[in-house]
Amino acid sequence: MSASDRLTPAELRTLFLFEALDENQLAWLSERGRVEQRTGGSAVYNEGEPATCFFVLLSGAVTLSRRLHGDDIEVTRTDRRGVYSGATQAYLGDRVDQVYPNTLRAVSDAEFFVLPADEFASAIRSWFPMALHLLEGLFFGSRAADTILGERERLVALGALSAGLTHELNNPAAAAVRATEALRERVAGMRHKLALIADGRLDGTRLRGLVEIQDAAVKQAAAASPLSAMDASDAEDEITDWLDEHGVANPWDIAPVLVSGGVNVPWLATAAEAVGEDHLDSAVRWLAYTIDSELLMGEIDDAVTRVSDLVGAAKQYSQLDRAPHQVVDVHTLLDATLTMMRAKIPAGIRVVKEYDRTLPPVPAFGAELNQVWTNLIDNAVDAMEGEGTLTLGTRREGDRLFVEVTDTGSGIPPEVRPRIFEPFFSTKSVGEGTGLGLDISYRIVVNKHHGDIRVDSRPGHTRFQVCLPITPVADPEDSAVPAVPANPAAPADPAGPADAAGSDGSAAGG
Asked: Which ranges constitute the DSSP H helices of 224-279?
């Protein structure tokens, strides 16, 4: 390397980054660094490439950008001499991924002082041991805090869902208990009436006819269609009058049960012929107990089925009995999430499903996609403040599947929209959110599933689109990433907070 490719110690001292170094340190930098030129419009380095060099601007103008949803977003533009960027975390060694967290591009012809990353790391470690310990502590402490907060966000969401699930399970469980208690009373009454009927006063032919009527009553109750309140009242009055005319005591007590079981006056007339007028009272009450018992068993069956469905939805939501990565139907995942969140969706919010049922299953981490749906639905519900329409839709474009969550809330203000995927950024009131829901969702969709997540918002219409590849892109285990940034100051994904350019005085200035 010729002398023209180097900066002298005196020239290095004119850069604010090195102005406090001693002569030996400046000489060390002068010997190991070099001067490089870049033409206007060329990339100095690109985001995601191995971080091999530390750059200090000597002349010209540069821009620093981050990649967001496939687009390069300019973060800062400067021509200040001495600003720096590149391998700013080389001192952390192999404890973090050494890649460029952004793209540095020359706006005009530019000149840089360039120091190899390993040399820069060696200088930091040997010259500033105390500062190094402080920086390491700050970096890894912040990352650990992010991890804890990320886990807390998941636990808070799980706690809310568990509370909702408990509430949902309690309703059918309590209904089953009440129906069981009532059924016990009806069976006891039916045994009593059967004893009165079968004590020898009813001949075998009439008893056989009554049993046949009982079987018909069971089938009638199972097939009975629900009546409107007015029609049910009219039917009860008609049956009450008929029972009263035929000497049945307290007919108003059993008329509602008979109507619920689909019994009408002609049907009762057939029963009267089978048992005779002398035994009609006991026979009708016995049939009422039979119908009521059948209806109660139907209630128990419905309640237990609801419990089973809720447990199935919880298993589908958590994917506990399934492999982490599998081929899944997004509609099944969406329905399971809605079931888990039912208690959190107010009565004033209407849920609309616009599913394309022809969509094929997709390879995915089912449990983690459910977390994405949870975060998006939860935000949509909060945005509507108790009233509105929540629409879940699916569609296909080429080899991509889209899941859309749309709400009719107030929308996301344009000035905060670029920041909604940043960790810890939240538009909710203090204590109502950690600001990690969309950040985690972004990482799950983009980093783990090689997809994309987009938002379109205006007052009365906010739509989040999750785009997933229909065919596998890469080995899922190779794409697994932590749920929190590897580096809070310069996160690996472009939707994170202000990168090194804005937070450490690099290409944003000193």
From this structure: 229-245, 251-260, 265-275
Cβ(284)–Cβ(218) under 8 Å?
Answer: no
Quick check: 152 and 434 in contact, CB under 8 A?
yes
How far apart, in whole angstroms, are the C-alpha atoms of residue 12 and residue 284?
A: 107
Structural tokens at position 128: 């500033």
* pLDDT values of the chain reduced to their tens digit, one per residue, 510 residues: 444 588 899 999 999 888 888 899 899 999 889 999 999 989 999 988 998 999 999 999 999 888 765 567 777 888 999 998 888 777 777 777 788 888 999 999 999 999 998 888 888 877 876 666 566 666 556 666 666 555 665 566 556 556 656 656 666 777 677 777 777 777 776 666 666 555 555 555 666 666 677 777 777 776 677 777 788 888 888 888 888 888 888 888 888 888 887 778 887 887 777 766 776 777 787 778 777 777 777 777 767 776 766 666 566 565 555 556 788 899 988 988 887 777 778 889 999 999 999 999 998 888 788 888 888 998 899 889 889 999 999 999 988 999 999 999 988 888 777 777 765 555 554 344 444 567 778 878 887 888 898 899 989 999 999 999 988 754 444 433 333 333 323 333 333 333 333 333 344 343
Q: What is the DSSP string of 44-71?
A: EE-TTSB--EEEEEEES-EEEEEEETTE
Q: Is the pTM of this model over 0.70?
A: no
Degrees, nearest 5: CA angle 446-455-484: 40
Phi, psi of 364 (to 5 degrees): -165, 165
Single-letter amino acid, residue 386:
G
3-state secondary structure 121-177: HHHHHHHCHHHHHHHHHHHHHHHHHHHHHHHHHHHHHHHHHHHHHHHHHHHHHHHHH
